[in-house]
């Protein structure tokens, strides 16, 4: 049973803190920017991988701080990903963040995370996020590949056309819903066998 509530966040409206600039820090900042290129990110870490430096050089919304985490770094932050290689320090940072109501992901300790990152299939405006409830990130990654292949490339055109119809439809809400359901019914109709 997966009790996680999926939401799609506008990170450009929030402040995101990443603690730890190693391999996992790099993976997480990459995942954030692939989805939300306008995210405001502060990354604090005594050692910072050169790939992260390159990303930050090209993006004025990314602020690198080259030292160990200090409790003051939490001021003004909304969301945090903790990815140092010091498990106890990761837990301590998460405890302080909890008191400040900052939503926290701790890369090496799923139990104390407020949220998990997901594997993401993207086709234009369509985005499908996959969660295995922390059971197997590798399966999530593979499913992303399978779904990416299975979803047709012309979905963007279909979405654009449906948006045009949606914008055009007059009448009350119930009529609009009926009409949009009628037009898209073909997507869920079972194929009838032909001889
Ligand atoms: C709970 C969660 C918390 C979180 O990080 O948010 C978490 C936790 C942990 N991951 C670990 C390992 C790996 N993680 C990946 C990859 C991804 N991990 C991601 C998410 C999540 N990972 C969250 C649950 C997601 C879900 O519900 O499915 C993805 C989907 C999203 C992203 O990170 O952007 C991204 C794939 C993106 C893509 O490509 O589509 C790979 C594979 C690879 O890199 O190829 C491996 C190695 C193989 C393996 O272990 O499977 C370890 C053990 C560390 C150790 O042993 O030291 C822990 C800690 C633990 O489980 O204790
Ligand atoms: N959730 C996930 O997807 C995965 C999680 N992990 C876990 O993530 C953790 C980090 O792994 P890596 O990035 O490979 O390690 P790493 O050794 O490459 O990087 C750790 C980074 O943390 C920094 N750091 C150490 N103490 C710090 C402090 N007090 N404040 C700020 N930064 C500090 C270091 O300078 C370094 O840049 C490990 O515990 C690992 O088990 C590993 C693989 C996948």
From TrEMBL:
Entry keyword set: Lyase, NAD, Oxidoreductase, Porphyrin biosynthesis
InterPro entries according to UniProt: Met8-like, NAD(P)-bd_dom_sf, Sirohaem_synthase_central, Sirohaem_synthase_N
Enzyme nomenclature, EC number: 1.3.1.76
SUPFAM superfamilies per record: NAD(P)-binding Rossmann-fold domains (SSF51735), Siroheme synthase middle domains-like (SSF75615)
Domain Siroheme synthase central: 124-145
Catalytic activity: precorrin-2 + NAD(+) = sirohydrochlorin + NADH + 2 H(+)
Pathway(s): Porphyrin-containing compound metabolism; siroheme biosynthesis; sirohydrochlorin from precorrin-2: step 1/1
Record's protein name: precorrin-2 dehydrogenase
Pfam families, per database record: NAD_binding_7 (PF13241), Sirohm_synth_M (PF14824)
UniProt source species: Dyadobacter arcticus
Top-level taxon: Bacteria
Coiled-coil intervals, chain numbering: none
GO molecular function, one term: precorrin-2 dehydrogenase activity
Top EC class of this enzyme: oxidoreductase
């Amino acid at each position: 049973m997966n009790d996680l509530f999926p939401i799609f966040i506008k990170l450009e409206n929030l402040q995101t803190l990443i603690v730890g600039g190693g391999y996992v820090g790099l993976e997480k900042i990459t995942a954030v920017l692939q989805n939300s290129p306008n995210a405001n990110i502060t990354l604090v870490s005594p050692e910072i991988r050169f790939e992260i430096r390159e990303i930050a050089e090209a993006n004025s919304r990314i602020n690198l701080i080259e030292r160990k985490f200090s409790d003051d770094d939490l001021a003004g932050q909304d969301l945090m990903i903790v990815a140092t290689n010091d498990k106890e320090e990761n837990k301590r940072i998460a405890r302080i963040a909890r008191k400040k109501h900052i939503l926290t992901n701790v890369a090496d300790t799923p139990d104390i995370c407020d949220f998990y990152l997901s594997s993401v299939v993207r086709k234009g405006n369509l985005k499908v996020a996959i969660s295995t409830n922390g059971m197997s990130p590798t399966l999530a990654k593979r499913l992303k590949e399978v779904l990416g292949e299975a979803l047709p490339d012309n979905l963007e055109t279909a979405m654009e056309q449906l948006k045009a119809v949606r914008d055009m439809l007059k009448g009350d809400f119930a009529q609009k819903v009926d009409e949009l359901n009628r037009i898209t019914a073909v997507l869920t109709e079972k194929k009838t066998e032909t001889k």
